[in-house]
Fold:
Amino acid sequence: MKKFWTFLVVTVLALSAVACGNKSEANDVDIVKIAYLPITHSLAVLEEAKQLENSADIRVELVKYGSWPELLDALNTGKVDGASVLIELAMKSKAEGIGLKAVALGHRDGNVVVVSNEIEKAADLVGKTIAIPHRQSSHYILVNDLLNKNGLSIEDVSIVELAPTEMPSALAAGTIDGYCVAEPFGAVGVSTGKGKVLYESEELWEDSVCCGLVLTDEFINSRTDVAREFVEAYKTAGNSLSREEAQNIAKEYLNQTDEVLDISLQWISFDDLEITPEMYENLSDKVISYGLLDNPPSYEEFVKNDF
Structure:
């Protein structure tokens, strides 16, 4: 009988540890694990983590990754509760059966097409090489929009996928002629004097959708109250993110100069991060038109605005 009770106590303690696996051992605070890349587009969730660092109820554990494939693997396999991620990548995962929901935008605007100083207009891009971070991205869509706006098509240029950190140096070396990528790497190219902005995203695609805050269905369903509180705090953080505070957060996480951040933060904002049906319908139309996905998930399937 003594062995039985010993076994029972050990089992109960083990199950309790598992049940509290998402809470701080010190004070029972709910922990939300969020994956991110060190880019300007992630600043809202970085600001939220800062605002909640002394919260008695919920805190954000930031998990940094060096590439979109690494981050997406963590998101798709449930290693994190959510991520600030290229929304097209998350849409593809959803279409492939992964349980994900987009709950907010990552930012508004904030993308530019940077070209070499020799390029004066879109027509000069014919036969040139343009880099993007991934074909499943708003950057690929923006390049298509730029070309279509000027009577060209994607067949008129050479598209290459390149790591964002390599793009400014590749432009300076002349191995590419332009690029479109998450900030602050566009600003890096401009700050060196080797590149200039040909278009800002709002000139090509009004209310463009780029990065989104995406949560796993498992997290939403198993900890709905925590998910609700987390999303509310995220939107509050975005709405309160002034230029000065964005600069401070960016300096802490992005390892960029003041000049680069000054340039980059001119193009982006973080208020009003709701994903509207109109925004998402426009995004889905572009995703289909430019061959990213044949059958993207519907707004009702993929976007969650209420808990």
